[in-house]
Amino acid sequence: MGRRILSHIGLILAVVIVLFPILWVLRTSLVPAHDSYSSTIFPTVTFDNYRVLFAEKNFGRNYMNSLIVASLSVIVTMPLAAMTGYAFARFRTGGRLARFATLASQMLPPVALALPTFMLFRDFGLTNSLTGLTIVYAAVNLPFLTWILMGFFEAIPEDLEGAAMTDGATRWGAFWRIVLPVAAPGIAAAAVLGFILSWNEFLFALILGGSHTATVPVALASLQTSNGVQISNVAAGVSLAILPLMVAAKFIQKYLVEGLSFGSVR
Amino acid sequence: MSQIKLNKVSRDFGLGNFGVKGVSLDIEAGEFMVLLGPSGCGKSTTLRMIAGLEETTDGEISIAGRDVTRLAPRHRNVAVVFQSYALYPHMSVRENMRFGMKMRKTPRDEQDRRIARAASVLGLQPYLDRKPAELSGGQRQRVALGRAIVREPDVFLMDEPLSNLDAKLRGEMRQELVKLHRRVGKTTVFVTHDHVEAMTMGDRICIMRDGRVEQVGAPLDVYARPRNTFVAQFLSTPAMNLIEAHLRVEGETVMFDAGPLVGPLPEREAVHFSAVAGQELMFGLRAEDILTQPRPGALAFHGTVTVLEALGPENLIVVAAQGHSVSARVDRHFLPRIGDGITLYADLAHMHLFDAASGDAIAREA
Questions:
Q1: Is the pLDDT of residue A84 over 80?
Q2: At B318, is the secondary structure helix, strand, or coil?
């Protein structure tokens, strides 16, 4: 009994340590700017910081940009990643080299790609456009998501497809009707990861974006001005920025846990 | 006319690594054919080639007179029952059974009719709306069978379907499968490494080793007349006793010398085997042909009991005799102690002789 209480105290402590910065950001977003650094927890509660963010800083637009780019890039990437991952898993397409190349692309620092991408996109008129940003995110996330999905597909017994194909399905039909539904937890987990990666991405958004296409991370960074950091607005922006991630995590929690342990415990 | 015909089929996995090499086999319509062999002998690969799930790199396969060698699995009208059952985990039992019919555009009311019938034959009615994960191993096995039956295919292909069941259930399912086969009457190819399944279920068995066919025949024929030492040893537990042997003609009699067993051959055996006198031979005798009581034509030998397995209905004993281990299947009341010296009798009327070098059986002269 005593040990139980002790371990609970330990866990609560750990949770507080993890959650405290987030809770403090939430608190800061809800107090007047001049009280941001005060030690009183809630001097007065106000939504003024949010109002300023939307009315004066055009944050609504940034938010929509982020949502559009992150969602679209996932929508573009997932089918490609699923098919590529399946090909790697089942047919050893490209052999070890293709697998290694896929993984190796993740080892390149993004900065190394930033400048060439910028020059390329400038020539194609894709800078300062959501299309350009979507393409970049799709391209950057494709290898990573392919790798993850490959693991999920490898964990699916090949006999399932054999059964489907003798049952009358084509190879594509077996993939579509059997493999994809069975891999759904993994695909959902991969999609959420892809969304989070795009949602948080800063470097390409900064370099390729303009005032109209700035995403949430860029907008938040721009609140650090020469006149100081507008911490109350930053706090409000951050609070809103983690919102979709929390919703996604909650919505997908079951799948995510299932998905992430899928490959290890067959 | 044979229902399934394999004509010198091979599966080359590359670099000269053959899973199956030059296998020819005719399977009659309605026959229950068992492919038997140790793991890695190519029996599953052969089955998968018939199903079209494994590429046939050489030779031809025909089903019902139609060359299917290059056809996709879905065009072969075969149903496969996998060792893992391979039930679609996201579908209910009913949907699992429906899938194949849906793919083949069987009319909906016909689908329902066949599902109902299969469910009643297999006792699956209470589980039709459950997912595979909610079923026991035996129930999953039945669903896998049901899924194959409702398709009404030309051929059933079963890849060690009983090996994941516990011993009791396996015995029951063995009998049920045989009954089911009698009722449905469809050509069935059944892969197993279990010689008991092969002996009890097959109309004929095809024993394979290293991607080749060793012998094909009715179970009791193969048991009585194994073509070589591999077949002889594989088809029973304990494996057939094998001892190096020589025959020597001395006037009217043929003297037999195989380790602990020395003496004249019985008249009938002497006639059959006198031609191979002087050759390097292997003498083979099944454990049930080692007797505890003398009998005319049985050769006595002494040995020390090293193993005693009292199975209930009978006992298995192993005796060490002049450096040879000899297994015997004896009456349940015959209970020597480990270390006892005993006399046993080898019933030479059931002896087998094999060429020592090739392992091929020496046929009894007709």
A1: yes
A2: strand
Find the closest chain B residue to A179 by CA distance: B88
Contact between B82 and A164 using a beta-carbon 8 Å cutoff: no
Model confidence pLDDT, tens digit, residues B175-230: 989 998 998 889 999 999 999 999 999 999 999 999 999 999 999 999 999 999 99
Residue B78 backbone phi and psi in degrees, to 5:
-120, 155
Q: Are the beta carbons of A149 and A182 closer than 8 angstroms?
A: no
Contact (Cβ atoms closer than 8 angstroms) between residue A189 and residue A255? yes
Nearest CA to CA, how far is A171 from chain B (Å)?
Answer: 9
Pick from A162, A170, A182: CB nearest B53: A162
How does pLDDT run across B135-165, given as a tens digit for each residue? 998 899 999 999 999 999 999 999 999 988 8
Q: Nearest-CA neighbor of B135 among B171, B177, B112, B164?
A: B164
Asked whether A232 and A49 are in contact (CB, 8 A), the reply is yes
Looking only at the bridges linking them, the beta strands covering B241-250 and B314-321 are unpaired
Q: Are B274 and B319 in contact (CB under 8 A)?
A: no
The residues near B41 (Cβ < 8 Å, ≥ 6 apart) are B208, B209, B210, B211
Name the pTM for this structure.
Answer: 0.84
User: What band does A105 get if pLDDT is binned at 50, 70 and 90?
Assistant: confident
Rounded CA separation B80/B204 (Å):
19
Tell me the chain A residues in contact with residue B87 when contact means C-beta distances shorter than 8 Å. 163
Give me the residue from B73, B90, B147 closest to A165, CB to CB. Answer: B73
Residue B79, chain A, CB below 8 Å: the answer is yes
Chain B interface test: which of A90, A161, A166, A266 (most B C-beta within 10 Å): A166
Sheet order of strands, B212-217 included: B78-81, B155-159, B187-192, B32-36, B204-209, B212-217
Query: Closest by alpha carbon to B91, among A163, A130, A118?
Result: A163
- pLDDT tier at A260 (50, 70, 90 boundaries)? low
Query: Coil, helix or strand for B264?
Result: strand
Residue A165's φ and ψ, nearest 5 degrees, are -75, -35
What is the mean predicted confidence (pLDDT) over A121-139? 92
Q: What is the mean pLDDT of chain A?
A: 88
